[in-house]
Amino acid sequence: MTATVRQLAPHEAGSFLDSARLGERTLLDVRQDFEYAEGHLPGARHIPLPELSERLDELDRSLPVLVYCRSGVRSLAAANLLAGQGFAEPMSLTGGFLAWEGGVARGPADLGMQSLAAVRTVDALLERAWAMELALEALYLELAGRAADPERADVFRRLAGFEDKHRRVLSLLWSHYRTSKGEDADVTAFEARARAFASSTVLEGGVSANDYMSLMRDPDDSAEAMELAMAVEAQALDLYMRRSMAEADAELRARLTLLAEEERSHLKVLGNFVSDRGRL
């Protein structure tokens, strides 16, 4: 097979995804359903390679498209197909999912969608997002209280602090949104409504606390704590992106994309935190 498209190494793909805003590029997973469910890049559109030729109209031909599969073979074929069909800038991830070193999400394409199924307004979206952040903060504080080792307890408290800061950002986003509409912007009332949606079982990304905890072999291990935190942020990014793809209302879709950008930023903060410590 002769490559007629650009092939990106994992670090190049990561830089591309970081530099392009979420609505200005397409990330395409062409693996089979079971492969996608086992793990995928957050926010990836999923069209198995055997179905791609019949589903091209689901993709925006004017946007750069980064395609990936398990090892880079199917994605190269898919990218060449897209190039032949007039897509502006198809690219393939060299080494595929096996070579990817960034955050990943898990589960089928409808995972967590129920948590945002009733959202039809920006107000409701931000309230539910705030509530999910609160639930995650509560989980981290619970784990901090359980931790026997002071360092592990400190890691969980710092993770809880990240969620507290993110809730403040969401409150600010809501206030700015309401002010821009010339409407009441009582943040205290907003947070009270959001708190009513909070549940100890549904966290960021719409996944239950038990499901997240099942990813951890040892809740008292600091490395496990950071892996959990990154998994949560990747799931949240994935959920907001998938929900935005399904949203017809332009204003709500824009806010979902903004929340996804916030989660992507949060994932980077966690990555920097790990790098600064020099270890998980």
UniProtKB/TrEMBL annotation:
Q: Which Pfam families match?
A: Rhodanese (PF00581), Rubrerythrin (PF02915)
Question: Which SMART domains would you find in this protein's record?
Answer: RHOD (SM00450)
Q: Which InterPro entries match?
A: Ferritin-like, Ferritin-like_SF, GlpE_sulfurtransferase, Rhodanese-like_dom, Rhodanese-like_dom_sf, Rr_diiron-bd_dom, Thiosulphate_STrfase_CS
All residue ranges annotated as the Rhodanese domain in the record: 21-106
SUPFAM superfamilies linked to this entry: Ferritin-like, Rhodanese/Cell cycle control phosphatase
- Record bears the keyword Aminoacyl-tRNA synthetase: no
Q: Which GO terms describe its molecular function?
A: metal ion binding; oxidoreductase activity; thiosulfate-cyanide sulfurtransferase activity
Which keywords accompany this UniProt record?
Answer: Transferase
The record's Gene3D superfamilies line, in alphabetical order, gives: 1.20.1260.10, Rhodanese-like domain
**Superkingdom assignment:** Bacteria
- Its name, as the record gives it, is Rhodanese-related sulfurtransferase
Q: Could you tell me which species this protein originates from? A: Humidesulfovibrio mexicanus
